[in-house]
Design a protein that fits this description.
Radius of gyration: 47 Å
Order of helices and strands: HHHHHHH
Largest sheet: none
Distance between the termini: 108 Å
Number of strands: 0
Shape: elongated
Low-confidence stretches: none
Helix content: over 70%
Structural class: mainly alpha
Number of domains: 2
């Protein structure tokens, strides 16, 4: 109500019981309730008076005309489009763009797939070439008949 929680309300009730006393406490709460009711009645009467003044000033009529202008069906724009011969809907342009985008996506996907296949072929050829080079190098390493070993004394000099 006034930003008070249940514990604060209980505390206020206990303080009121101590300060006012048990005999006068019900009368005080009754008076407080009547005052609150009168304040609410005054607030609702004020709200009704302000709404009536706004109606007298024509605010309701203006708001209705603004809402009607914002609604194309109520304003009659559909009939004006039909009379002007504008049969194309904006969605058709969107559909055309969507088809173009799909075609571009398919083209890019095909190019990416081709590039991936080319890369895999290059990697396979490179792996085969590396395997051939490894075989050749291992064959040279095992073939020692052409070069005689050097004596250790000559190597130091």
């Amino acid at each position: 109500m006034f930003g008070l929680g249940a514990s604060e309300m209980i505390l206020l009730g206990i303080v009121a019981l101590i300060v006012i006393g048990p005999k006068d406490l019900p009368n005080m709460f009754r008076t407080l309730g009547q005052f609150t009711g009168k304040a609410r009645a005054m607030a609702s009467e004020f709200s009704r008076a302000m709404e009536a003044a706004a109606d007298d000033a024509g605010v309701k009529d203006i708001s209705k005309s603004i809402k009607a202008a914002a609604n194309p069906q109520a304003f009659g724009l559909d009939k004006a489009r039909e009379a002007a011969g504008l049969k194309d809907k904006p969605a058709s342009a969107t559909a055309k763009l969507s088809a173009e985008r799909q075609a571009a996506k398919d083209k890019i996907s095909a190019a990416a797939a081709q590039a991936a296949e080319d890369r895999q072929a290059r990697e396979a050829a490179q792996a085969e070439m590396d395997a051939d080079n490894a075989d050749f190098m291992s064959a040279e390493a095992t073939d020692t008949t052409d070069t005689p070993p050097k004596p250790k004394d000559e190597a130091k000099a």
